[in-house]
Amino acid sequence: MRKDGSSPAETFWADLEAGDWSSDPYFQKPPDEDQIHNCAKLLARLKHIGEKGYPPYQRAINFLEDGVWEVKYDHHRVAYFDTFGEGEYDPKNRVDDRRRVDPDMKDEFWWYPELDSILRLTNGWAKEGPKAPPEAIELALLVREEDVDRDKPQ
Length: 154
Hints:
Layout: H1 8-18, H2 33-52, E1 61-65, E2 68-73, E3 76-83, E4 118-126, H3 134-151
Antiparallel strand pairs: 1-2, 2-3, 3-4
Helix pairs in contact: 1-2
């Protein structure tokens, strides 16, 4: 949530779920069945991460920057980060060196860090090129900062 009370992720999600996200470059007339389908797939992937602590498979997510990740399905993306919800944030980046993880960790997700208990969505977008748009990443980082600030005790 932004400091002004708005939530880019909530707006994106509601429009995608209804099949009415008109900013989508592949938008069909509403209700866009592809958007509705993709929203359900994104939700299933987020649920898996929340319940299991890792994605359903490697290509379901990407690391973006400074502890912000994206979950993806087709061309739709939603950025998320983790927090324990008390106004503090410890970025969890992709692990690049297998020697830095528990030696008993032998599964394919050794590179995915152990996240805090709360996952928060920041914003969503449609991917059109080989990388996430820089403005989408910048917004995700800004939303995270403002969202975590809202958790700080007054």
